[in-house]
Amino acid sequence: MAIVEDEAAARTSTARVVAPPTARRPKARKSFLPVALVAPAVVLLVLFTVAPAIYALILSFLQMKVGSGLLGGGATEVFAGFANYVTTLTSGEFWAGLGRMLIVALIGVPATIFFATLFALCLDAKRARLVGITRLAIFLPYAVPGVVASLLWGFMYLPATSPIGGQIINYFGTTGIFFSVTNVAVWGVVGFNMVILYTAVRSLPPDLFEAAQLDGASEFQIAVRIKLPLIAPAITMVALFSVIGALQLFNEPTTLKPLANAISSTWVPLMRVYTEAFVNNSIYEGAASSFILIIMTVSATVLVNVVGRRIAGRETK
Amino acid sequence: MKKPTLKHVGAAVGVFAAAAMALTGCSASNSSTADSNQVVHLTFTNWDGGMQAAVDQWNKANPKIQITLNKPSGTGYTLYNKLITNNKAGTNPDITEVEYQALPALISSNVVIPLDKYLPDLSKNFTKSSLSQVQFQGKTYGVPQNICPMVFFYRKDVFDSLGLTAPTTWDEYAKDAAIIHAANPKQYIGNFTSTDPGWFAGLAQQAGANWWTTSGNTWTVGINDAATKKVADYWQGLVTQGVVTPEPSWTPQWSTDMNSGNIVGWVGAQWAPNQFPSVAKDTAGKWVAATLPAWTAGDPTVGIWGGETEAVTANSKYPAQAAKFVNWLNNSNEAMTTLITQAQVFPAAIAAQSLPALKTPPPFMPNQPDYNTLMATAAKNVRTFQIWGPDANVTFDSYSNAFAAALQNKTPLSAALDVMQSATVTDMKKLGFKVAG
After folding, report:
1. Among A135-149, B6-20, B171-185, B394-408, the least confident range
2. CATH class of the domain comprising B38-144+307-369
3. Which residues, at least 6 apart from A261, have a Cβ–Cβ distance to it below 8 Å?
4. Which of B3, B14, B84 is facing A146, going by the closest CB pair?
C-alpha cells in the first residue's frame, strides 16, 4: 500500500512541476531577472558539460585513418558508425575491468555504509564522549585528496616502507589488491557519509528515545530498533552515493598502479577510457566507452534509487 | 571511490587547454613576415633538467632568435598525444623534444615537418644508426641529441666481497645472480621491471630482434619473434628461480632496495648516473658501470634505452629559425659542452664525443673517471630496430600490462609477447597502415 501511495504522491508532485508557471504564479510578469539569475549556471553547464558531451558523442562515431605511404602522412577523421561501441562492448578487457570494479564495489559499498552507520550511531550514543574531536577525526580523511591518500596508503602497503606488516602480508597480491584499493576508497569516504547519517540521527525527535528509555530499552536497542529504521532514507542516499562513487573508481587504482604489477592500465573501466584516449591516442574509442559507462551509471543510479525507496517505504510502514 | 567525474575532467581539460593556448600564444601571434631586423620568438618544449642553461646560452648569442623554454605538464606520451591533439588547433610549440620511439607517430600525424632544406648534411657528424632514428624515407625530421646505450651497473663492494667480477655474458649474469641470492637471500642481482617497455625493447635489440620492419609501404611486426622470445625466456628462468626480483622500477620499494643494497645490480643505460642520486642517494661511489653482458662472449652489440631528438612542428611559423636552433643545440660543440656538464648527456654528434667535458665522470661516479670512454665504446656498438612503429605507444602500454600480469599471475612471459604483438597489429590495422601477415 505504502508503495502505491508513494507513487501516487510522486505523480502529483511531478504534475505540479510540469504545470505551466502562469497557473501557479499568475502575478509573475515578464522579467529578465530570473533569466539573469540562472544564466551563470546555465552558461557554465552548457560550456563545460553539455558542449563537451556533445563533442564527445560526435567523437565516439569517428575514427582516425592514416593516409597512404609508409608513415601514412595526413591522417583524417572518418565516420565509423558504431565501430567504437562494438570494439568496447566486445573487448574482454572492458568486461574484465567492469568485473574488477564490481568486486571493489561489493566490498566497498557495504563497508562504507556499515562503518558510516556504526560511527554515526556510536557518536549519537548518550555515553559518547569527545564527540566533536572524534567526529572531526573520522571526517578528516575525506579532506585528503584521493591521490594523496592513495600514495600514503601505497607507502604503507609496500614491504620496504610498510609500518603495517607489508613484509608479511602481500597487499599487492592477486586477491589482496582488491582489499587494498577498497580500503583506500572506504577510508576516504566513510567520514563524509558518517556526517550525513549523524545529521539524520540528530534531527530525529528526542522524545522518541525518552519514551523508549522509559519503557526499559537499552542504548543498543534504541540505536538498532529505533534510530536505524528512522534514518533508512538517509542510508539509502549514502548507498546511492557509494554506488555512484564505485562506478567512478579511478584515482586510487591509478595512483597505486606504478607501485606494483597488480594493477594494469585498464584495471577499471574509467582507467581504460583514460588509456584509450590519452595513452593509445584513440580518443574516439575512449569517448564511446565513456558513453557506455554513462548509460550504465545512470541505470545503476535509477536502480539503487528505486530499490532503496521501496525498502525505506516498507520499513516506515 | 569518489570524486572526479568526467564532468570535472572535462572542465579541467577545458581550462587547461585555454591555459595552454595562452602559453603558446606568443608563437602564433608574431605571424607577420619576418624581415631581417625583426626579432623572432620561438617556443621550445623540453623536460630535461639543465636545458635552460643551453637556451640561455643561445639567447645571449642570438638576439634575433629568442627561445622560450616550456616544461610540459606531462612527459613522454602524455606530451606527444597532446601535440597530436593540439596540432589541428595550431597551438603547438615551435620546437619540441621527442624520444626516438615516438617520432614515427608524430610524423604520421603530421605534427613534425621534414627539415632537410634547413639542415646541413648530418651524415658527416652522425653515425648511420643515430640517423636511422630521425630519417625516414629519405627525409630528416630532427637532429639526434644523444645516444643511450645500455650498460650494466653493479655494486663493486658487494661483487668483490663474493669474489665476483662484472658478468660479460648473460650466462655469467645468471650464475652470478644465483651466487648473490644464495649468499644472502635478501639480495638480488637486479629486478625484472614491467614498467619499462623501452628497457625490454633495448634488451631485444641486443638479441637481434626487429619489432618493426618495412618493405615499400608495408609493415611487418615481429614483437614475438624468436630473438625477443629468447630474451623473455631467459628472464623467465631467472624470475622463476627467484634470483631476480619481479618488482617494477621507479617505486619507493625499488629505491629502498637499491639504496639499502638489496638490489646490487642494474641493467641500465648511459643516463643512469643522472637518476642514481634520487634512487639510491647513499650509494654514491659504490656503483661501477660495465659493458652490458653479451649473448655470445665477445659480441659487443648493445641496444639503446631512451634517447631524444629535437623536432620542429608543423605549427611553427619560422621553421628555418627553429631548425637553426635545433642544429645548434644537438650538432655544435658549445651546446653539447653545456648539455654534457648540465644534463650528463652522451652526444650523438661524433665530433662532440671527444669533448673535454666528457673527461669528467658524472658526479655520482667519481670512482670511474673513464665512464664516458666506456659509453663511447658502447655507443659505437649500438644496434636498434630498423624503425620504431607508428604506434609504439600502444606496444609500450601493452608491454606494461601484459608483463605485469604475467609476473603477477606467474604465467609465461613469452605469452605476454604474443599479447603485445596482437595489440600492436590490431591498432596499426585499425589506423589504416598496411601490415603484412
Report:
1. B6-20
2. alpha beta
3. A172, B194, B246, B247, B248, B403, B404, B405, B407, B408
4. B3
